[in-house]
Design goal:
single chain, alpha+beta, 2 domains, 4 helices, 2 strands, 12% strand, binds zinc ion
């Protein structure tokens, strides 16, 4: 069986029920990643997304010398950062960099940050 979207062999087979109608999809690896990657992310995809969140929030903190507000986090799709009040920006950055490093090293997170799955 070939992919719905190209001539490659379909390796991912999905059944979706939308509005009570069954839709079957047959996708190759590449298109499965594109089509369903965000809905059914693999561990690797999730890690990439997480690492990207952290890179962006680290860039934000470096640029503004403060953590984003809740409103900014939502608007810019950044992770919520709520450092304890006595923690300096430099400490927060080090802490975030450590998390980013461990994400990139594919280590499990240690419950310091909660991710909301969509
Ligand atoms: Zn394909």
């Amino acid at each position: 069986m070939t992919c719905d979207l190209c001539e490659s062999a379909a390796t991912v087979h999905l059944t979706e029920i939308r509005c009570g109608v069954k839709h079957e999809r047959h996708l190759c690896d590449r298109h499965a990643e594109q089509v369903i990657g965000t809905r059914f992310p693999t561990a690797e995809t999730r890690n990439r997304v997480r690492a990207d969140y952290f890179r962006r929030v680290i860039a934000f903190i470096k640029e503004h010398n403060r953590v984003p507000t809740t409103e900014e986090s939502l608007r810019l799709k950044l992770p919520m950062v709520s450092p304890s009040s006595q923690e300096s920006i430099a400490d927060t950055l080090r802490w975030m960099q450590r998390i980013l490093d461990s994400i990139e090293a594919n280590e499990p997170l240690h419950g310091e940050i909660e991710f909301k799955d969509e």
